[in-house]
Design a protein that fits this description.
206 residues, two-stranded antiparallel sheet, six-stranded mixed sheet, 2 helices, Nucleoside Triphosphate Pyrophosphohydrolase, 12% helix
Length: 206
């Protein structure tokens, strides 16, 4: 089952802080080329891509008040930047807010990020995609607590894939209640979102 959430913030409505300063970002490269002709069929160990040529690798810290946040027992999150032949990106928007997200889902322990990515797009936007490469990797340290009294809980991987529709048709339809799926050639003006969520959209649009 897909778990759609603002992956820089708390899915349960609680408070979550994202540390996103450049001083904490480690940039390396991998052998997976985002423009490769060979689709990504499987990815079970994102850490194996460190130190090779390809996507950037960054480090983040997310602080949660609730220890039962959406990645508390997960291996990480798969995010998919799907673009069509015109260069437009597939985005999801809640019907009651001016926010946009790439299709994404939690990857459970011992899961496959590529399988989760394809499933997320199918369930959230009603279309089948080919994963063309890995654009970004992030390690996310999750800490729990309030008022400076925090403890490290777990570390997860966020993987941003580039993808393209398998079907030539641009027809999409959200399978998530309260959300709309559509193609955008630019970001909506002043979206109510920031950090890695919008950074990932911009990386795919560039």
């Amino acid at each position: 089952m897909t778990v759609l959430a603002p992956y820089g913030f708390a899915a349960d409505g609680g408070t979550e802080r994202e540390t996103n300063d450049e001083a904490n970002a480690e940039v390396t490269a991998t052998e997976i080329d985002p423009t490769t002709e060979t689709p990504v069929e499987s990815l079970t160990d994102p850490g194996s891509l460190r130190g090779r040529e390809g996507p950037t690798v960054a480090e983040r810290t997310h602080a949660h008040e609730d220890p039962d946040h959406c990645e508390a027992t997960a291996a990480g999150r798969a995010v998919v930047g799907v673009t069509n032949d015109s260069g437009a990106v597939l985005l999801l928007r809640p019907e009651d807010a001016d926010r946009v997200f790439l299709p994404n889902t939690v990857v459970e322990a011992d899961g496959d990020w590529a399988d989760a990515a394809r499933r997320a797009v199918a369930e959230e936007a009603g279309t089948t995609v080919r994963l063309d490469g890995v654009e970004r990797l992030r390690t996310v340290d999750h800490v729990v607590g309030t008022d400076g009294d925090t403890r490290h809980q777990n570390t997860t991987w966020h993987v941003l894939f580039r993808g393209s529709p398998v079907d030539a048709s641009d027809d999409v339809s959200s399978g998530v209640d309260g959300w709309r799926a559509g193609w955008y050639d630019e970001l909506p003006a002043d979206p109510d979102e920031s950090g890695d969520v919008i950074g990932d959209v911009r990386a795919v649009l560039d």
